[in-house]
Design brief:
Chain lengths: 506, 382
C-alpha cells in the first residue's frame, strides 16, 4: 500500500510543489535537511535535500553549493541558452561530482535521499539530479573477530556494502567478476550484492541464487542471517546450508571455486553458497600453510567434529552399558571416580553441559575482562567445587570440557552449533540404548545428511556421488599439495575447470 | 502425517519401548576379577545332593573401587564372595542377595579350577561347557588349575597386587622373561579340548608367601591326570616353539655359565619308517652369554670354548626335552606337544592312516630331538 501510493508521485514543474510533496512524504523526519537557494542574477531556484549524517556534507557544500552559488555567478552565460537549457548546463557543467544520476519520479528521489544521496531540484524541470554523496562514519578495517588466522590477510568486512565489494574486487582483478546489486526488504530497502565470476560459476547456480533472493518477501533485512534463513534449502535441519564469513579472502577463494557470494549492507558477514560438509570444515588458512601441516590440521578438525558430536554419548554408553569395552584399569578408575555420585551418567552429563552452555552464553554477553572472569569462575571454581562436593565425577568434567574445546576447534561457528544441538539428541539415545542407540542416532543423522542439499549440491559431497566428484577428495580430509589440485572443485559444477595451466595455454 | 513425523514416531518407539533394560551404572557393578571353583565335600568321594548334581563352591573376588580412588586409605582393597551352587552363574545369581552390586564378568581375568574338580571329568565338562556358552565372559580369560583348593589360592592376597585376577593377568603378560608356565586362555583351551580332549593348563600353587604359577596340569579325556614341572613345561615350550627368552645354567668345570636364549626356531619332520612314525624335531636357538667368570682360566674370545659351551647347553636341553617327551608319551600317553597337528597339516597321507587310533599310536611314535645352539654375543670383552 505504501509502495502504491509512492509510485503515483510525479515531479511537477514547480519546485515548491515538489518540495512540499517531499516534505509531506517525509513528514516528521527531522533528520532530513532541506536547503533552498538561488543562483545567478536571474535568481533560478534550486534546492537540495539530504539526510543529515548519511551524507558527506563537505562534499556537498564544496563541490555542489560552492560551484553553483559562486563560480556560476562568475560566468557570463548566454542568457537565452541558460534560460532554455539550465538543467543540462547545471548537470554537465557546474557540479564537480564523479557520479550523477537522474530520476523522473519523486519516490525514486526520496529512496535515494534515504540511501544517503543528495538530490538537487531545479525549478521548472521535471527531473531530479541525484548527487552521489554517501558518506557516513565507517568502521576501520579490522581483523575479523570470529575468524582469526595466524597466516593470512588481516582485513575483514565492515558494515558498508561498497567497502566490502571493494575488498573483494581488489582480490579479483578480473572483468568476469560480476557484482549485481538489488534491494531486499520492503521497508529497509537493504542493498544486497550478488558476486560471482561469470565464466567460472555455473549459470544455473547463479540464476537459482538470484531467483531465491528475488522471492524474499520481507519488510526488514537487518543482517545476513535473515537472508540466509530465507534462501536455505531445508530450514528444519540443524546443519547450516549457507556459509557465512567475515573474510574477503575467503569470499574471493569461494568465487574462484565457482561459488556465489552474497554481500549485504549493514553487516560484515557475507554469505557463500553452495556449501558442503567439507567446505564448512575448511579454513582459508588451510591453503596458505604448506600441505602437510594443513592436512594434519584438517584431520585434527575432523576428529574434533567427531568429539564434539559423540564424546559425551560414548562416555554415557560405555560406562552404563558396556564397561567391558574399557581397559580394566580404566574401568576400575572410572568406577572409582563415580563412586558416590548421586546421579546417573546422563543426568550428570546434562548438568555439566547446561553449565558449560550457561558459561558460554554468559561469557559472550559480557565484555572482555568480565567475560574472562566468568570463564575462570565457571570453569575452574564451579568445576572443582562440583567434583569435590561429589555431585559430578571428575571424568565427566574432563569429557564435557574436551567436548567444548573440540567444538571451538571447528572453524565454522554455525556448523559447530549444529553439532552442539545434535549432540544432545545423541546423548538421550545413548542413555536409553547404549552404543546401539548411538548407532541409531547416527543412522538418522546420516539419512538426513545424505538427503540434504545446498543449492542443488549434495551436502555430503565429496563423500557421496563419487563418480562425479571423486577428484574433490584431494581437498577433503586431507589437503593435497597445491600442484596436484589442477582442477577446480567439481561439486559446484564449474564452467572453467582448470586452475593450474601450462605455459602453452597462456 | 509427514514422512518425517512417522520416522520420529518409529524411532521414539524403538527408544522408549525397549527402555534401558541393560543399564547399570559403572559404579554399581562388581568387576569380578577372578573366579575360583571347588567341589563341595571332603575326601575322595564326591557328595551328591538330592537332585543328583554335584555342587560347586564358587568364589568370586572383585576389587573395591573405593580403594582405587586417590587419597583413600584404610579401605579394604578387595572383596571375596563365596557360595554353593550348580554352576558359576547360578552362584552369582544367588549371591545377589548378599551384594549391593551387579556382578560383571566383562573384566574377569582368571578362572581357577580346584584340583578336585579337575580330577572329575564330569565336573570339568560342565564347567567348560558353561564357560563356552557364557556371553558375559570374554574369551581371553586365563584358566589355571590349582594344586589344592581354588579358594585357598584366592584367599591369599598377593603382596604386589592385592586383586588375584589382576595379579594373574599381569603375571601372564610378563611371561616373556620366563618359560616356567604357558599362559592359557579359554580361547586356547576350548579348541584343544574339542580336538583331542586334552590340554595343558598352567598350574597355580598357593604358598605361604603368595601364589605361584609354574608348571602345567595335564588334562586327558577332560580329566586331570598329572602335573608337568617347571622344567618339563619349558621343554614342551621348546618343542612347540613358544620360548621367547629363557636362561639356561650349565657348569663348565667349576665355572657357572649362564646362557640367555634370545631367539628359537623349531623345524619338524615326520616320516614312516618300517611301519613306525618317526618325528625329527630340531630346536635351533640363539643367545647371549650372560655370565662366565672374571679372570677365568679360559678366554671367552676363544672359539673352541664357545663351541664347548654351546654343546654343553645343547646336551642339557636335549636331555630335558627327551625326559619330558618320555613322560608325556609313556606315562601320560597324551599328545600335548602337537605331533597330531603337525601330521594333519603337513603329512596328511600318514595322518589318514593313523587318525582313527591316534591315542594308541602316539606312545609308539619315535621322536628324535636335535638341539642346535649358537652363542651370538658374549657381552663385554677385555
Amino acid at each position: 500500500m505504501l509502495r502504491e501510493r509512492e509510485n503515483s508521485i510525479s515531479i511537477s514543474k514547480d519546485i515548491n510543489t515538489n518540495l512540499k510533496k517531499i516534505k509531506e512524504v517525509l513528514k516528521d523526519c527531522d533528520d532530513i535537511v532541506y536547503r533552498e537557494f538561488t543562483v545567478g542574477e536571474r535568481r533560478f531556484k534550486f534546492a537540495i535535500v539530504y539526510v543529515d549524517g548519511l551524507t558527506d556534507k563537505i562534499l556537498v557544500s564544496d563541490y555542489v553549493l560552492e560551484s553553483l552559488m559562486h563560480q556560476a555567478r562568475g560566468l557570463e552565460p548566454n542568457p537565452n541558452s541558460v534560460k532554455n537549457n539550465l538543467y543540462e548546463l547545471v548537470k554537465n557543467g557546474n557540479i564537480a561530482i564523479t557520479e550523477l544520476k537522474e530520476v523522473e519520479t519523486l519516490n525514486e528521489a526520496i529512496d535515494n535521499v534515504l540511501a544517503g544521496e543528495t538530490i538537487l531540484l531545479v525549478n521548472r524541470y521535471q527531473k531530479i539530479i541525484i548527487i552521489s554523496s554517501r558518506g557516513w562514519p565507517v568502521r576501520g578495517l579490522n581483523e575479523p573477530q570470529t575468524e582469526t588466522v595466524i597466516r593470512g590477510a588481516r582485513d575483514g568486512f565492515v558494515e558498508t556494502l561498497k567497502v566490502n565489494t571493494t575488498l573483494v574486487r581488489r582480490r579479483i582483478r578480473d572483468s568476469k567478476l560480476k557484482i549485481k546489486n538489488m534491494q531486499i526488504g520492503r521497508r529497509s530497502k537493504t542493498d544486497v550484492a550478488v558476486l560471482y565470476i561469470e565464466d567460472v560459476a555455473n549459470k544455473e547456480l547463479i540464476e537459482e541464487v538470484i531467483k531465491r533472493l528475488k522471492t524474499i518477501r520481507v519488510d526488514v533485512v537487518l543482517e545476513s542471517g535473515i537472508i540466509e534463513q530465507f534462501i536455505e534449502d531445508n530450514w528444519m535441519s540443524p546443519f547450516p546450508q549457507v556459509e557465512n564469513t567475515e573474510r574477503p579472502d575467503a569470499v574471493a577463494a569461494a568465487l574462484y571455486e565457482g561459488r556465489v557470494a552474497i554481500l549485504i549492507d549493514n553487516t560484515p558477514f557475507a554469505l557463500v553458497v553452495p556449501v558442503t560438509i567439507s567446505t564448512l570444515l575448511q579454513s582459508s588458512e588451510d591453503y596458505y600453510e604448506r600441505w602437510i601441516i594443513a592436512s594434519l590440521i584438517r584431520v585434527l578438525r575432523y576428529i574434533a567434529s567427531l568429539i564434539a558430536l559423540l564424546l559425551p554419548s560414548i562416555y554415557i554408553a560405555v560406562t552404563a552399558y558396556h564397561p567391558g569395552m574399557l581397559p580394566t584399569q580404566l574401568a576400575l578408575y572410572v568406577a572409582a571416580t563415580r563412586e558416590g555420585v548421586p546421579f546417573p551418567a546422563i543426568i550428570e552429563a546434562f548438568i555439566m553441559e547446561v553449565t558449560i552452555e550457561l558459561l558460554r552464553e554468559a561469557g559472550m554477553r559480557l565484555s572482555g575482562p568480565i567475560g574472562t572472569t566468568i570463564g575462570i569462575v565457571g570453569g575452574l571454581v564451579i568445576g572443582q567445587a562440583a567434583v569435590e562436593a561429589g555431585i559430578v565425577s571428575p571424568m565427566m568434567v574432563i569429557i564435557v570440557a574436551l567436548t567444548t574445546i573440540a567444538s571451538f576447534a571447528i572453524p565454522s561457528y554455525n556448523i559447530a552449533t549444529g553439532f552442539r544441538f545434535v549432540r544432545f539428541g545423541i546423548m538421550i539415545f545413548s542413555a536409553l540404548l547404549g552404543l546401539y542407540g548411538i548407532m541409531l542416532a547416527l543412522l538418522i543423522i546420516g539419512i538426513h545428511l545424505v538427503r540434504l542439499e545446498s543449492f542443488g549440491v549434495p551436502y555430503m559431497s565429496p563423500y557421496v556421488s563419487f563418480s562425479e566428484t571423486y577428484s574433490d577428495l584431494k581437498d577433503s580430509v586431507v589437503r593435497m599439495p597445491i600442484q596436484t589440485m589442477k582442477k577446480r572443485p567439481r561439486f559446484t559444477n564449474v564452467y572453467d575447470k582448470d586452475r593450474i595451466f601450462s605455459d602453452s595455454e597462456e | 502425517m509427514s514422512k518425517f513425523g512417522k520416522m520420529i514416531i518409529i524411532f521414539m518407539a524403538v527408544a522408549i519401548l525397549s527402555g534401558c533394560w541393560d543399564k547399570v551404572e559403572i559404579n554399581d557393578r562388581a568387576f569380578i576379577s577372578a573366579i575360583g571353583i571347588d567341589i563341595q565335600g571332603h575326601g575322595g568321594e564326591l557328595e551328591k545332593n538330592k537332585t543328583g548334581y554335584k555342587k560347586f563352591i564358587v568364589t568370586f573376588v572383585f576389587p573395591n573401587v573405593k580403594a582405587i580412588r586417590k587419597g583413600s586409605s584404610g579401605e579394604e582393597p578387595r572383596f571375596i564372595l563365596s557360595s554353593v551352587g550348580q554352576n558359576i552363574f547360578h552362584v552369582s545369581n544367588a549371591l545377589t542377595t548378599r551384594s549391593n552390586k551387579t556382578m560383571f564378568f566383562g573384566h574377569t581375568k582368571a578362572i581357577i579350577i580346584g584340583e578336585k574338580v579337575a580330577r572329575d571329568s564330569d565336573s570339568l565338562k560342565q564347567i567348560f561347557d558353561e564357560v563356552e556358552r557364557a556371553h558375559e565372559m570374554g574369551r581371553k580369560v586365563g584358566v589355571f588349575i590349582s594344586q589344592g583348593e581354588a579358594r585357598r589360592v584366592i584367599k591369599i592376597e598377593p603382596s604386589l597386587e592385592s586383586v588375584t585376577g589382576t595379579y594373574l593377568s599381569a603375571l601372564s603378560k610378563a611371561k616373556e622373561k620366563s618359560s616356567r608356565f604357558t599362559p592359557k586362555t579359554i580361547a586356547d583351551i576350548l579348541p584343544s579340548l574339542h580336538d583331542c580332549r586334552c590340554a595343558l593348563i598352567p598350574r597355580i600353587i598357593p604358598t605361604d608367601k603368595g601364589i605361584k604359577v609354574a608348571g602345567a596340569a595335564v588334562i586327558k579325556d577332560y580329566k586331570l591326570i598329572g602335573w608337568l614341572g617347571e622344567i618339563e613345561n619349558r621343554s614342551v615350550m621348546f618343542i612347540t616353539d613358544k620360548v621367547t627368552s629363557e636362561a639356561i645354567i650349565v657348569m663348565d668345570d667349576d665355572v657357572l655359565v649362564s646362557y640367555v636364549i634370545s631367539d628359537t626356531s623349531v623345524s619338524k619332520n615326520g616320516r614312516m619308517e618300517n611301519g613306525q612314525i618317526v618325528m625329527d624335531i630340531t630346536v635351533n636357538m640363539e643367545g647371549v652369554l650372560q655370565q662366565y667368570k672374571l679372570e677365568a682360566k679360559n678366554d671367552v674370545l676363544d672359539n673352541k670354548l664357545l663351541r664347548r659351551l654351546e654343546s654343553l647347553v645343547e646336551k642339557k636341553i636335549k636331555s630335558e626335552i627327551d625326559g619330558t617327551i618320555k613322560k608325556i608319551q609313556k606315562e601320560f600317553e597324551v599328545d600335548v606337544i602337537g605331533v597330531a597337528e603337525y601330521l594333519y597339516k603337513f603329512k596328511p597321507d600318514i595322518w589318514d592312516k593313523v587318525k582313527d587310533d591316534w591315542e594308541d599310536v602316539f606312545p609308539e611314535v619315535k621322536i628324535n630331538v636335535n638341539v642346535n645352539t649358537k652363542i651370538r654375543r658374549i657381552g663385554m670383552t677385555k
